[in-house]
Amino acid sequence: MRILIINPNTSELMTDKIRAVAEAAKRSDCHVTVVCPSRGPVTIESSYDEAYAISPTIDLVKEARTENYDAIILACFCEVGVEAAREISSIPILGLEEATLSIALLLGEKFGIMTEKRPRVAMKRRHVRRYGLLERLASVRPLELSVAELAADPEGTKAAGIALARRMVEEDGAEVIIMGCAAMAGYSEDLERELQVPVLDPLKVSLKVAEALVDMGLAHSRVGLYAPPTSKEFK
Description:
This protein has about 240 residues and is an alpha/beta fold. It contains 9 helices and 8 strands.
């Protein structure tokens, strides 16, 4: 089994971190390749960043179509380019958000999402509403740390995450915690040990879902939402 993981930002630090977490989480028969674009935002923290990251991310998806991968993961919680990538691919394409929300539904009545900064709270709530899951959302709370800070300071991020997640459990009624940024990859076990509730690392969850889809021979439907785009000339 071969899975490609694309970090849609250009941060080599985050790409290396994603690679380390994926290597530790994957099955022994799964080969993982982790790459990032050579152009685009160094971190993704706004709708503008997301829009700017889509084109180079899709370019990597197109290049991968000749490499015989069994699945592709776009390792950003904002689902950068996922729908477009599915339109041009016949193998499973996963973003981090939808896969993790789907698993959270199996583990508790209400889930809470930690995000990086306050402006992203509204976007996370909008995404949950788009999936029709607002009734299952306990809260979205910000760590008030940048993506770069989340990746560069594991111990500080874990301490802040434990304090924030505890409030989400005790005050908001969250039964499951989602770490809503790929920069938090690798931190879930420490948080879960402290909080005694399921804490989902979206990178690990998405990798395991991808492995399962490949095992079952399943991929997204291509007759409706993800139908291939009409051939045309682009200028």
